[in-house]
Structures are given as structure tokens and as C-alpha cells.
Design a protein that fits this description.
By secondary structure, this protein is an all-alpha fold. It has helices at about 5-10, 10-25, 35-50, 70-85, 100-120, 140-150, 160-170, 200-210, 245-265, 270-275, 285-290, 300-320, 325-335, 350, 360-385, 390-400. It is globular and about 65 Å long. It starts with a helix and ends with a helix.
Amino acid sequence: MKVKLATQLLSRSVAESLIFCKDKLNLEDFKNCDATVNFVKIMNDAFDILNSHKLSGFGFKKAVCEQNIQSIKDFAVRFNKYISGLKFDNGQCVVESNKKTEFIGIAVCLQSILNIYDMHINCVNPSLKFLPVYKCSQDHIELFFRSIRSHGGYNNNPTCRQFIAAYKRLLIHAEIREGGLGNCVPLSQINILNCLSSKQKPEDQINNSCSSSVGFLEKTFKDKEVENIDHDHDYFSANTTLSQYCKEVVIYIAGFVSRKLGKSLACESCVGALFGNKENLMASLIQVKNRGGLAYPSDNVIKICTVCEKFYRREAFSQQNLYKIKKDELIQRTMAEFLYTSVFEELQSHALDNYPLENHINLLLKAIAENYFNLRIKYACNSISASDKIRNFYTNLILFKGQ
């Protein structure tokens, strides 16, 4: 089983999304999801405890130490009581069925953590100050096996001679890289050299032009592909109408885009225009999922991201093939949509301090659209490639049979 798929499904984000659909959107299909939400939250907390690896973590993601050991003990008792009461539709207890391995395994791991804590931390001469439980998982050996199998080229079932050669090579230069095809993913990223394109990002142009000033120059935007566009008709067909849930998701993504650009931009005026008032989004999906690290986008960012989503849906519907979607054309259409529309009015005077080609309003609009389309297209492509392949099925079947 690919553990990363289970952790994505049994996560607090899924539980909060179910609650949002039930309480905020009042969707009929989610009115009886309370038991599912409780199950997902308990499993998420169990995964967080078993994957904790640093003291700076939040909640159960914090490594086991003196400050949180009591809460972990209470959760272990609650988890054991919960799985003991789980039953199938026929009344059979889960822990007494042939599906009991995963549930009992998690309970045993939680108890093992408590025993290790008593042996190495809560003792007369403690050998550890805290316990990073992730260090005790089998992810490391899985990554090591994945690296050994990758040395065999097309043959991922090495012979003894191939294993010895790969093992020696890893001992000399033990840099393990995982390509996303194994049973787990590494939590620590390994930086590699990459070839940067000569094309400059719009946020870099904003940063490079922050100190430039030429007095009062008018805002211009010239693009021969969008000069003759008629703005009197609706560009969006009926299939691009966004539901209330889609609108909330767009607002959530807009917050991510604002937070990302806020970290990379050096212009204080542009950064201030990205974020909005928290009180205006108290009933949004961001408020439901926020635990202190999410950002609240401004109305302008939400407006731009909504237009981007409609253009993306229209393009995806017309092309019927994600690989034919051209991101640059979508960005141009988005900028053309706001060509005669007031956006970022608070930056009008600030825009006059820069050259026309370095207009921060246009560059900020382009940066928002580019980041939104990058995220949207990447998610769509990952959804296509995430489908199970027959090669992967037979590969695991051969490995488990030892052939």
C-alpha cells in the first residue's frame, strides 16, 4: 500500500472539508457525515503522532517529550476504546475480523511509543531528551530499497551480485533520492542543481523595479493579441458557472497565492494589496481550516483568481486534453479581461512611480494569474498520472512473490 495515499485521505483537511460542506454549504449528501469526520480525525491524529519528527511541530505533530506525553497517553486510551467499538454493517467488530491488522497495528505502535518513552526519557538516567517517532518508522528502509532497485535499470528485482554492487555504491555515496514511485515519500527534501530559464518571473520584475521612479507616467498595457478583443459579451459559457463550493475553494487557493507572493515580493505596497480583512472572510473555508498559518486574500486577488478559474474551465472543456492547454494564452486572456476594469485601485498612485513596462499593477496581476494557473494545471496533471498503472500492479505482485 502507498502510505502517502492513505495519509491524504485520512487527514484533518478532509474532515474539515466534510464539516464545511455539511454546516456552511448545507449540502444534502453530507448531512450524516459526523461519524466519518470523527473517524478521519482520529486516524489523522494517530498518523501525526507516528510521523512526528521535530520539537517545533504543532499539536500531535510535535515529537514526544515531557510537554505532550500526557496528551499522547490520553489519545492512546481513546484510540483503543474507539477501535474496540468499530463494527461492520453485519455487527462484527473490526478488531475481530480479517481486517483487524491495520487497526491493531496502530494501537501497538502507540503503546510502543509510550514504552520507549518510559525506557529512554522518563527514567533515572535519560538517554534522550525527546523522541522523534518518525525515525523509528520503516520509511528509511523503504527509501533505501527503492534506491537499490533503481540501480538495476529496467529490472527492479536485483540478483545477489547486483544487490552487492548497488549496496557498495550507496555506502560510498549514500544520496538517496525517491522518484515518487515507491511506497513512501521522504519528508526531507534534497536540493539538486537545476537549469533556470532566461524568462524572468513577474515577481522578480517587481522586485527589480521597486526603487525605480520616473515621475508621473500613465499606466499602459499593449498586447497585439488582445488589442481587438470585444469586451461587450460574456466570455464564459454555461459550463464555467461556479458553484458555492467551487467559489470557496477558489478563495482558499487565492489565500495560498497571496501567501506565496507575499514571501517573494519585496515591494511593500504590492504585498499589502495581496491581503484582505479577516472579518470579511469569517464564514469562508479558510476560517474553517486555519490553525494560524493561512492567509486571507484581498477582494482583488479573489476576483482575479475567480476569472482565472473560469478561463481554465472554459479552456479545459474546449480542449478535452490537458496537455494542449497553453498557460501563456490563459494569462494573456486574464490580463485582457482586466484591461478596462479597475483593479488594485489602491496601487494607482504607486504605479505612476515606475516605467510603463514595469507597471506593478500589471506585473502583480500577471504574477497572481501565473501562480494560479501553475497550481491548477499541476493538480490536473497529477490527477491524471495518479491513476493506477498495470505495470505498477504487476511489479508489486512479482516483488511480493519473490520472483
